[in-house]
Amino acid sequence: MRIRIVDAFTDRPFGGNPAAVVLLDSAGFPADDWLQRVAAEVNLSETAFAHPLPPGGDADWALRWFTPVTEVDMCGHATLATAHVLHTTGTATGPVRFTARCGILTAETGPDGAVTMDFPTSDLTPVAVPDGLAAALGAEPVAVRDTSADVGDLLVELADERTVRALAPDFAALVARPLSARGIIATALAEDPDGAYQFVSRCFFPAYGIDEDPVTGSAHTALAPYWSARLRRDDLTGHQGGRRTGLVRTRLRGPRTLLTGRAVTVVDGELHA
């Protein structure tokens, strides 16, 4: 069985966010325990498993995502990685429809290799700053939003780009006293909003076995409506990451958000299990 590691939301190896992709020949998924064991063995933020569906339905492939410790409801970068593998191997052509826990997702690869995905837009609810959040992050929040169930994060605006870049969270504190269903999206306006990107972010999910996720597609379903409302622009680009970074182009379309990025395969091997 082939397994590939793809760096998503980047155009060069060793950037962006790595995801493992396993395309299954079966008509269904193997046992959940096996899927979780593979994801734990790979030990990346996400491992995607996909199998083809019969023609004529609402979707072409069934898709699931696992962190090293649990299955998740939505994942952007591993969906991008899966679409990239399907396109570059000739397994699929044209738009690809996935059925996943969060509904039907589509991905279309352009002539330049960039993949545009159609995801549900996250609902954002203003909330008070939770006790302990500033201490755990090491920075004072400017505003906090709770995101919809599919995302399950707290979106936390900080003072400026420099503050986001300098974050060194207390992960033990975040795990000991969970502040959200999944994790924390820390964000700020870019120092130069008229430049290559308009906002920055970093994402922390220690309760899911991921201290920091380099470039989180699903987080941008919340970042896009947040910053589009602030900047009064539907088309934006976000820059995410600490040690590893990447770019996500967003286009807000009401209840749907389009996420666009590039990807590159860095490992193509055999899974013996």
From TrEMBL:
One GO molecular-function entry: isomerase activity
A Pfam short name: PhzC-PhzF
Keyword Iron-sulfur among record annotations: no
GO cellular component annotations of the record: cytoplasm
Gene3D superfamilies in UniProt: Diaminopimelate Epimerase, Chain A, domain 1
Active-site residues per Swiss-Prot or TrEMBL entry: E46
Keywords from the named record: Isomerase
Superkingdom per UniProt: Bacteria
Family to which the UniProt record says this protein belongs: Belongs to the PhzF family.
PANTHER family from the UniProt entry: PHENAZINE BIOSYNTHESIS PROTEIN, PHENAZINE BIOSYNTHESIS-LIKE DOMAIN-CONTAINING PROTEIN
Record protein name field: Oxidoreductase
